[in-house]
Amino acid sequence: MGSATTQALAATTAALGAATGVDLDVARELFAAARAVGDSSQLSGALADSAAPAEARRQVVAAVFGAAVKPTTASLLTTAVAQRWSTPDDLVDAIEELAVRAAAVADAGSDVEAELFAFSRTVADNPELELALGSRLGDSAAKGTLVESLLKGRASEGTTLIAASLIRQPRERRVRQLLSRATRLVSDQRGRAVATVVAAAPLSDAQRDRLTAALTKRYGTRVSLNTIVDPTVVGGLRVQIADDVIDASVSSRLADLRQRLAG
């Protein structure tokens, strides 16, 4: 990610934080805008062209989206295109990120992170489903509809909107990659870090509470736990937060011992 994009993302995220009237319709419109911009190299190029006056880019937004979206959506899009982006793809990513964050804001009462993670595990455990959703073949809208049917009654409206919308516009990304990124964005929007915990057996409520408290103290921010049960770790835990891995599993210690004995 270029420095220009890093600064631009900070500006768009701040704009969302200051916005009023952020609801699921705004998130839905932002996802639709990301698809429209991502599907048109001409439009994405024009909106991300830092050589063009900012006012000209704002006028393009007004002409393409203005009458079709809510004022809050239009304002966020206007802020996005007014920034300097390293590449047109970065602008598309940023609009999509705004959509995910907006859904997290709008559905604040739901555990969107946990629901996205659970759906990601469902996909991981079902190769046929992963292939169906990730294949380049087939209608993208139909894939989104499939996700909506799978999550109906099992996940919140915000989670369903995020998952279905991302599947409609994979842009060469794998399904689990899309869902993992969305989980991180939702947690970040809510001021939390995501810890993926691999354990040999499900954690009890007491174990989860102790681990959450320990990680929160270590990292200085609230931590949300996503647990994967994997009997091959034998015992102990393996925890990953972003690029930081804490491996206290028995399988890791045994592997280390075997390596030492092998000389």
UniProtKB/TrEMBL annotation:
Belongs to the ATPase delta chain family. This is ATP synthase subunit delta. PANTHER family: ATP SYNTHASE DELTA CHAIN. HAMAP family: ATP_synth_delta_bact (MF_01416). It is a peripheral membrane protein. Pfam families: OSCP. It comes from the Bacteria. This protein is part of the stalk that links CF(0) to CF(1). It either transmits conformational changes from CF(0) to CF(1) or is implicated in proton conduction. The lineage of its organism: Bacteria, Bacillati, Actinomycetota, Actinomycetes, Micrococcales. It is found in: Cell membrane; Membrane. The keyword Cell membrane applies. Keywords: ATP synthesis, Cell membrane, CF(1), Hydrogen ion transport, Ion transport, Membrane, Transport.
